[in-house]
Each structure stands twice: as C-alpha cells, then as structure tokens.
Amino acid sequence: MANIYIAGVPFDAHSSYLRGPALAPPHIRQAFFSPSGNMCTELGIELDETPGWIMGEDWPEKLEYQQISNYTSTLLDQGYTPLLLGGDHSITFPIARAIYGRYGPFNLLHIDAHGDLYHELDGNPFSHGCPFARIMEAGYARRLVQLGLRCMTTHQRAQAKKWGVECHEMKDWSGQLHLEWDGPLYLSLDMDALDPAFVPGVSHREPGGLTTREVIRLIHQLSVPILGADIVELNPLQDPSGMSAMVAARLMKELLGRMLMLR
Ligand code: MN
Ligand code: MN
Asked: How far apart are alpha carbons 168 and 184 in whole angstroms?
C-alpha cells in the first residue's frame, strides 16, 4: 500500500490577477494541526494513530516546470502517492506529466469555478487559466470531469467540446452528483470552486459556488483509489481571518482520510 506524502508547492508565478497562493502551504499545515480541533476525520479515521501518511515540507521556491515534474516523479518512484498543496493551478500540468509518466493516461476529476481550458491567457500558455488545455492536448488524461464551473466562456466551451471534457456547471447543479469511475483517478481541487461565502481567501472570488459540505461529500463519495491530488489557489493575502485556510485544511484532512481508506 502506497504511503501518502503531503508537500507544499510554493509557486504562483503563473497567476493572472493576484499573487499570493505561493504562501498557502504553511497556512494550510498550521490550520490542519491547529489545537482548536482533533485529528479524526468525519468518516472515523484517527489520523494521528493511522500509519501511511507523511507531512512533508515545502519544495523550494521558484521551481521550473520540469523540476515540479521531477519532484513529483521522485515521490512516485519512491512509492508515495502525492497530495500536493499549491501554489497556483498552473502546477497541475507538470504534476500531471509525472502522473502520466508513471501510470499512462489517467482519469482526472477537476473541481473549480473555472475550466482552466484557455489556449493561452494574457499571452501565457502556462497560465493558471490553461493547465487543463495543456493536459488534454498532451493526452495525459483519458477522461476529464469538471465540477463547480461558473465562468465558462465561448472559447472554453469549444475547447471542452474538442476534447470531450465532461463539464458540470453550477447553473445545472442540484446539490449532488454521483460519478462512476472505471479506475483510479487524480483529483485537482481549486479552492475557488467553493462559494466565496465559505472561502473568500482566493484570488478570483466567483459567487454562486459549492458549499464546504458539498465538497466534503464529493470527497467522501470517491470510491476508486486516488493516484494523487492537489489543493490549489488558496491565497492567504485574501484571507486575513485564516478562515479559508481552515476550510482548505478540512478538505485536505477529509481527502487524506478518504485516500487512506481507498488504498
Ligand atoms: Mn483553477
Ligand atoms: Mn479557479
């Protein structure tokens, strides 16, 4: 059984609007270990008594893309399942390259207000608005399901159609979704998928999003092994109360517990 390795990726050089997500990993870690709560997940996993996971440190700042892939590949080669804390969403492309290198084309569940399917944004093909375009054109994902969407443009709809992306938009959201997967998946969770009423601490506040409870339910309903995961786009500069970091830590905790159950 693969151990889960949590690491921070302090990278936000490809953010299009505000910087700050590079600062997020220590905030999520601090909230996770806060003495205000305990270490038991809702599904009953006592994390402090359960082996199989390691809280690692942050990777160096200002990594090149290839280095992010290499760090991820090293974890995979050592038998770890990566659970990575961004950072902006651009990191998912180099991470996905490593996941593909290990497992071949994989299932990808992407929870986000945005499709992140732009061919390029502000002239940057590696912007945090583009990782899922790069992943799909490289053939890393054999299936991409997106949830939480509420900012789709005509261009991004065309991109989604081109690659057969399964887009579940908030305008059609009924509060629940049962997804069937034919095998393991990678989960990419952008914190702006949640409504800014729950998570104001993001660079792009998009009203009309998911509740904390709905995202926890989606995590609990995962029923196939997880190849890896990232939680990205928390912006501590937009989160003076630390409340959004607490939500990110809660989602990480429930995801970690669920990943341990599904190994
Ligand atoms: Mn995103
Ligand atoms: Mn987003």
From this structure: 20
Q: Pick the ligand that lies closest to the CA of residue 232.
A: 1
**Alpha carbon of 34 to ligand 2 centroid (Å):** 26
pLDDT tens-digit readout, 216-244: 999 999 999 999 999 999 999 999 999 99
Q: Say how many C-beta atoms besides its own lie within 10 A of residue 240's C-beta.
A: 10
- Is residue 205 within 8 Å of residue 196, measured between CB atoms? yes
| Structure tokens that stand for 147 in this block | 């949830």
What's the gap in Å between 56 CA and the centre of ligand 1?
24
3-state SS assignment for residue 202: strand
Q: What whole-number distance in Å separates Cα of residue 133 and Cα of residue 126?
A: 9
Question: Cβ–Cβ contacts within 10 Å for residue 35, how many?
Answer: 5
Query: Could you tell me the end-to-end alpha-carbon distance of the chain, in angstroms, rounded to an integer?
Result: 6
Mean pLDDT value of segment 194-209: 98
Average pLDDT over residues 62-73: 95
Whole-structure pTM value: 0.98
Q: Which domains does the chain have, with CATH numbers?
A: 4-106+184-262 (3.40.800.10)
Q: Ligand 2: distance of its center to the CA of 12 in Å? A: 13
Question: Which ligand has the shortest distance to the CA of 151?
Answer: 2
Instruction: Pick the ligand that lies closest to the CA of residue 86.
Output: 1
- What confidence score (pLDDT) does residue 1 get? 61
